[in-house]
Specification:
The complex is a heterodimer of chains A (280) and B (301). Chain A has 280 residues and is an all-alpha fold. Helix content of chain A is 73%, strand content 0%. Chain A has 14 helices and no strands. Mean pLDDT of chain A is 89; it is low at 1-11. In chain B, a hairpin with a 2-residue loop joins strand 1 and strand 2 (17-27). In chain B, helix 4 (111-119) packs antiparallel against helix 5 (133-145) and helix 8 crosses helix 11. Chain B is α/β, with parallel strands linked by helices and 301 residues long. The chains are: A mainly alpha (280), B alpha/beta (301). Chain A binds chain B through residues 1-5, 7-10, 12-15, 18, 21, 25, 28-29, 118, 121-133, 276-280, and chain B through 48, 51-55, 73-74, 76-77, 79-81, 83, 85-89, 91-92, 96, 100-101, 103-107, 111-112, 115-116, 118-121, 140, 143, 147-148, 150, 168, 172, 175, 179.
Chain lengths: 280, 301
């Protein structure tokens, strides 16, 4: 065994913005997540793009879709363009439900395991023995997960665009970009929901399960709001109301800002609660 | 001199579970203080409260004058912590972990951390999930000391360490003491506490039963005395001496337990030709039983 270096006691000052260090730590730890989460969704998108030329050539399908009630078509993101344009088809098959659910699920998973899971395993005892405020840890977890979500969206976008080129489908890069960028504020919103729940309770099952429940309920509210006037009043409370269909209609900066602001506000409330409760 | 650690009526209650009740004690700078008690007595609750992980129900705790709840960041900047079972993200290597904590603590120079890792033969290259409990504990120990804190808090620090490393750990604590570092460690290993600590606090059912120096506890306890005479043992004379009990004579040898000073025994023995005398200081374990009537394990039952 070698002799230890002579300890020279210095008054070290803690980091000024430890949330950035936590965010960098999360992005490094989850550096393979863009592939792990982006590839499966991207492969589904490739299949959708691959079959689109045959769907487009089928006139019987148009007739079948036109026979659906308007409310049902609106509820499930099916428009007249759904089977006549690739952006409409991608919106109906991927970007109305599967992609936003994947984005939200990733954020719920990443934030819940990074906070509640870490708390359950005793990791936070060590992390919070450092001179950092708890809110910095939560903010770093949210920011790191949000950065990884961008990576997931980019993987999906790149595969979608590559499939369009391979299968000879005319898909504008701007439409793809709008579709994937639109996933981000929705994901951040559900990350904020998860932070709020982590601030309320140390029970990791309640945090992950509760956030997933909010996701399901909000989707249901949106669908029911489109199907029935009775639910129209509460439709505005659903995050999906502000999600829209950017791959078809382009980005809506106002709606994106509302989702982001709501997500950050929920996270801030979660941080305030987390600062006051027992950890571990 | 202001204490390094001070608690006043520190209380933490849980719903449906015992916590700690009105703990008042202080630890002087440079002191090695052992927190003794059976499992469930409240040692870990006290430590978690000192680290600001738990909010006190009542009372206060300060580290170097900083309230651990209100000025937690300042208190923790001056504290190193090693939990009983060091846990961190399993994919992370020791190197990455130490980098993270050095950054969070504003440490640029990693030489001290590396020298500590070398000393404890900590494997910094492999992910923590691939390491044994003892090897993870070594990395936890380096993490706790990476910023050379004036106060170190450890919860069952040698759990999982092999005997050689426990020995090395005891030497490290000695060096920390010499360096003026305050060490607060919880343990239910009395031999470890006896070797390393200046004073001990004894926790029983969430309350502080006593705070005493190791010397006080062992000094008060019964000593095992063995006298070997050149002729037949004069049992009757020694039986009458104050503090002597459980006397047994066998040929020229006399064995008994002695409470208090050995002056009278030595004086009486001096009147005979004595071949050998042995006064065994009790272990902290024996002293603990003598003082509290139970072993730590019995207290837990």
């Amino acid at each position: 065994m070698t002799a230890v270096a002579e300890p020279v006691r210095t008054a070290a000052s803690p980091m000024r913005a430890p949330w950035l260090r936590f965010a960098a730590y999360v992005t490094r730890r989850k550096r393979f997540s863009p592939l792990a989460w982006g590839l499966p969704l991207g492969l589904m998108t490739i299949m959708v793009v691959a079959v689109f030329p045959s769907i487009q050539a089928s006139s019987q399908l148009d007739e079948l879709i036109n026979a659906y009630p308007d409310a049902l078509k609106e509820a499930f993101g099916i428009s007249d363009a759904s089977f006549s344009s690739i952006s409409g088809y991608l919106a109906a098959e991927i970007f109305s439900m599967i992609a936003p659910f994947t984005a939200a699920a990733f954020m719920i998973h990443a934030v819940a395991t990074g906070i509640s899971g870490a708390e359950h395993r005793g990791v936070l005892d060590v992390t919070l023995s450092a001179p950092v405020r708890r809110r910095h840890l939560l903010a770093g977890q949210l920011a790191g997960a949000a950065a990884i979500l961008l990576g997931i969206a980019l993987v999906v976008g790149a595969l979608t665009q590559a499939a369009a080129a391979v299968f000879g489908v005319d898909l504008a890069v701007g439409d793809t970009l709008a579709g994937i960028v639109n996933l981000w504020p929705l994901g951040v919103f559900f990350g904020g929901v998860t932070v709020l729940l982590a601030g309320l309770t140390r029970r990791s099952a309640v945090v992950g399960g509760g956030a997933a429940g909010v996701l399901a309920v909000m989707y249901l509210m949106e669908v029911l709001g489109k199907l029935s006037d009775a639910f129209a009043a509460v439709d505005g409370l659903s995050a999906f109301h502000y999600y829209g269909s950017a791959i078809e209609d382009g980005l809506d900066p106002g709606a994106m800002a509302i989702l982001l602001a709501a997500g950050i506000a929920l996270a801030a409330a979660g941080c305030a609660l987390f600062e006051r409760r027992d950890v571990g | 001199m202001s204490p390094a650690i001070a608690t006043h009526a520190l209380t933490k209650r849980y719903k449906g579970a015992r916590g700690i009740e009105e703990l008042t004690f202080s630890v002087a700078p440079g002191e090695v203080f052992g927190f003794l008690g059976p499992n469930g007595a409240g040692k870990t609750t006290t430590i978690r409260t000192l680290l600001g992980l738990l909010r006190p129900t009542a009372g206060t705790a300060e580290i170097l004058g900083f309230d651990v709840w209100r000025d937690g960041v300042a208190a923790r900047a001056r504290t190193g912590f090693l939990p009983g079972e060091f846990a961190f993200d399993e994919q992370v290597t020791g190197e990455e972990l130490l980098d993270l904590f050095a950054d969070l603590r504003g440490i640029d120079d990693r030489a001290y951390a590396r020298s500590l890792a070398d000393r404890f033969e900590a494997d910094l290259r492999r992910p923590l999930g691939e390491l044994s409990r003892g090897n993870r504990q070594k990395i936890g120990l380096v993490q706790a000391l990476v910023h050379r804190p004036p106060v170190v808090v450890m919860d069952e620090p040698t759990a999982g360490l092999d005997p050689l490393m426990q020995e090395e750990f005891a030497r490290l604590v000695e060096e920390l003491r010499a360096d003026g570092t305050t060490v607060f460690l919880s343990s239910h290993n009395l031999a470890e506490v006896e070797r390393m600590c200046d004073r001990v606090g004894i926790l029983r059912e969430g309350r502080l039963a006593a705070v005493e120096s190791v010397e006080e506890i062992t000094g008060r306890a019964l000593r095992h005395v063995t006298l070997r005479f050149a002729g037949p043992a004069p049992a009757g004379e020694f039986r009458r001496l104050p503090g002597v009990s459980e006397l047994a004579a066998e040929g020229s040898e006399l064995r008994f337990l002695l409470a208090g000073e050995p002056t009278d025994v030595v004086r009486a023995a001096g009147r005979y030709r004595l071949l050998d005398i042995e006064i065994a200081r009790p272990s902290l374990e024996e002293a603990f039983v003598a003082a509290y009537g139970h072993s730590l394990e019995e207290l837990a039952a």
